[in-house]
Amino acid sequence: MNAQPHLIARVRPELARTERELSCHLFPLPADGTLPASLRAYCGFDIVPGQAEQLDGPAGMPCMPCLLQAALAS
Fold first, then answer.
1. Which of 5, 26, 32, 65 could form a disulfide with 70 if both were Cys (CB 3.0 to 4.6 A apart)?
2. pLDDT in tens, 42-56
3. In this structure, what is the dihedral angle of CA atoms 27, 60, 68, 55, given to the nearest 10 degrees?
4. Which of 34, 23, 29 is nearest to 60 (CA)?
5. Which helix (H) or strand (E) covers residue 49, if one does?
6. Eight-state DSSP code of residue 24
7. Is 70:42 a contact under the CB 8 Å cutoff?
8. Contacts of 12 (CB under 8 A, 6+ apart)
9. What three-state secondary structure class fits 42?
10. Which residues of the chain have pLDDT under 70?
11. pTM of the predicted structure, to 2 decimals
């Protein structure tokens, strides 16, 4: 079984309005490599290009629903 490709990101600090937005979210990526207009995290949180910063790994407060759903998706 292959793991779902994903992006680990959070909203850029200067754009964050809530603590949830500062959380580290996991975003599944399309298997065909296309980049949609927005990405939806495993927890349902959406981001658009320019709004988020990509992280090399989990940083800060992780989004627990994302972690759980990502583990189930693998």
1. 26
2. 999 998 888 888 888
3. 30
4. 23
5. none
6. B
7. yes
8. 51, 52, 53
9. coil
10. 1-3, 74
11. 0.79
In angstroms, rounded to a whole number, what is the distance separating the alpha carbons of residues 52 and 11?
Answer: 4
| H helices present in the chain, as ranges | 19-22, 64-73
Q: Which residues of 7-34 are buried (b: 16+ CB within 10 A; e: fewer)?
A: bbbbbeeeeeeeeebebbbbbbeeeeee
List of residues 6+ apart from 9 with CB closer than 8 A: 24, 25, 27, 39, 47, 52, 53, 54, 55
**Distance between CA atoms of 47 and 50, rounded to whole angstroms?**
9
Q: Which residue has the tokens 């989990």?
A: 58
Specify the DSSP class assigned to residue 16: -
As given in the structure block, the two tokens for residue 22 are 């500062």
